[in-house]
Amino acid sequence: MLLYIYLIAITAEAMSGALAAGRRNMDMFGVGFIAFITALGGGTVRDMLLGNYPVTWTQHPMYIHLTISAGLLTMLVARYMHRLHSIFLVLDAMGLIAFTIIGCNVALNLGYTTTVVIMAGMTTGIFGGILRDILCNRTPMVLRKELYASVSLAVAILYLTLRHFEVNEDINMIASFSFGLAIRLAAIRWHWSLPVFSYAPGRWND
Amino acid sequence: MLLYIYLIAITAEAMSGALAAGRRNMDMFGVGFIAFITALGGGTVRDMLLGNYPVTWTQHPMYIHLTISAGLLTMLVARYMHRLHSIFLVLDAMGLIAFTIIGCNVALNLGYTTTVVIMAGMTTGIFGGILRDILCNRTPMVLRKELYASVSLAVAILYLTLRHFEVNEDINMIASFSFGLAIRLAAIRWHWSLPVFSYAPGRWND
Amino acid sequence: MLLYIYLIAITAEAMSGALAAGRRNMDMFGVGFIAFITALGGGTVRDMLLGNYPVTWTQHPMYIHLTISAGLLTMLVARYMHRLHSIFLVLDAMGLIAFTIIGCNVALNLGYTTTVVIMAGMTTGIFGGILRDILCNRTPMVLRKELYASVSLAVAILYLTLRHFEVNEDINMIASFSFGLAIRLAAIRWHWSLPVFSYAPGRWND
Questions:
Q1: Nearest to A140 among C19, C78, C135 (CB)
Q2: What chain A residue is nearest to C52 in terms of C-alpha separation?
């Protein structure tokens, strides 16, 4: 089940990466490359941080083909994609939650401590988007927008708490997905966001 | 033979990195640093992705000294370098091909699957330039320009195909270099490029 | 002793990261994230380059909590921080030196060669700031400003030289800190900097 959501999620993330590449007028190669990195970059950074070799996608070439194909396909269908706006937001939110739970489990299996498990979940959830934005030369949106990384954090905490109390894994999944989707979509709907820190450049430390 | 081409290639890449640093008015340290990363960053990312420790250049301090020296030397000779424009394009193309073949071999020796072997070759070929552009705060050119990454892809496929049919390694090298150089130089000469994907920012997913 | 300096240093670096995030109007999450990466990113990159798993901070959750808290606290006290300008410059310089020495020791313990040991020290010293600047979408300052990376280089060389001659470790520390602080603060006071390489973009290799 989580695998199917994962496959849908990396496809959706790949398409969001392709659109970002299109905004920078990249060529076909750039589109495929950014699609791949947006979809699989978060898990890659997690694996490299945790020393979890071999890196997941190197053992599943299908993920590589899927994300690059989704990216290239986006070039053809981009003009119609605004009609699918709402569906995309839901898929993206489901991806964020799936990535977070998968990332937590990878770190749990390696025996890391709770704080690191949470960070592994969040890294999987948000780092693909951060790499996409770095490669497209813009300040990562995940650090500036509506609740997004915070949803990943909240889901990780809920998932680990229920796990700690030995709640059945399926029920835990359903709870985590319902909760995560609810707060993410509410955040989009009502523009919930975290307090912003604006600091005007001064002379020092500049 | 491949080693000599490799040494010439990292020198040429280091010099291209130094020029990029000069465009950003970096100091001597920045120039050496960008030169090093441009020349050896692709192989570093490949080794970190594949879990190929120790990272190659840590076992060959000579590569470090060579690339940093080449970068610093570039500060002195930059004004004369436009005269060597054509030579540089050839050296850069040879470097791209050499990096690609070396990267493929590293992944082959570690037993990775074909798709990953190709990606290891391309990572070695193009990631130094990507890191250079990120550090110089510009959108990576390799994702937007004339056939470049595609040459790396084509060379990787040709090399692995000939290898699959057990063609003699020397002949394979000669074929891969001839083919790669030919399409890269033709791409520069006649401005061959991949289709570009231009996507105007809309409201959604922005 | 070095541990205490290290804790003060990562706190100071986290605060500098938070201010940089504030200049980009990031939200609370972004501030904590950039603070963490600025403080612990250099050591992380070093560990990943050297294959030194598990990465240090994954074994010390306290470092994670400390740096993120320092970042968030900075949001509250930022307006008063310009008064502490001088103290900060000293803390930042001490951090640079502590990071450098710690980085050298990690590589020494792993048996790397001298050139790599020096690069490990410098990576620990400066890469947190480089990641901060990449994430804030600006050209890394460490590559353009007053002696900073060079201080890290000089300290690494002094420390390793004294170590080579089997100078007592405590005396070596005192000498390295005194020397490093002296040249860093002198560089700030009298605007010492390395020669800058300015290269006007031409047609070729662009």
A1: C135
A2: A51
pLDDT for position B86: 82
Q: Are A123 and A45 in contact (CB under 8 A)?
A: yes
Look at B205 and A16 and tell me if their CB atoms are within 8 Å.
Answer: yes
CA atoms within 13 A on the CB side of B159: 29
C-alpha angle C101/C104/C107, rounded to 5°? 150
Give the residue among A82, A132, A167 at the shortest CA–CA distance from B201.
Answer: A82
**Test mutation, B143, B145, B155, chain A, max A CBs within 10 A:** B143
Q: Which residues in chain B land under pLDDT 70?
A: 201-206
The mean pLDDT value for C57-77 works out to 94
> What's the CA angle centered on C195, arms C99 and B141, to 5 degrees?
80
Cα–Cα nearest to B42, from B32, B30, B28, B52: B52
DSSP conformation letters of chain C: -HHHHHHHHHHHHHHHHHHHHHHTT-BHHHHHHHHHHHHHHHHHHHHHHHT-SSPGGGG-HHHHHHHHHHHHHHHHHGGGGGGGHHHHHHHHHHHHHHHHHHHHHHHHHTT--HHHHHHHHHHHHHHHHHHHHHHTTS--GGGTSSSSHHHHHHHHHHHHHHHHTT--HHHHHHHHHHHHHHHHHHHHHTT--PPB------STT-
Q: How many residues does chain B have?
A: 206
Q: Which of B122, B16, B68 is nearest to C205 (CA)?
A: B16
- ipTM associated with this complex: 0.87
Of C16, C44, C135, the CB nearest to A205: C16
Q: pLDDT tens for residues A122-143?
A: 999 999 989 999 998 888 877 7
Whether the CB of B182 is below 8 Å from some CB of chain C: the reply is no
CA distance C92 to A179: 42
pLDDT for res C205: 46
d(CA C117, CA C87): 30
| Cβ-defined contact of C135 to A138 (cutoff 8 Å) | no
Q: Which tokens in the block code for residue B103?
A: 């990267």
Torsion, CA A136, CA A140, CA A144, CA A146, rounded to 10 = 80
| Integer Cα distance of B190 and B193 in angstroms | 9
List the beta bridge partners of residue A196.
C27
Within 8 A of A34 by CB-CB distance, chain B residues are 143
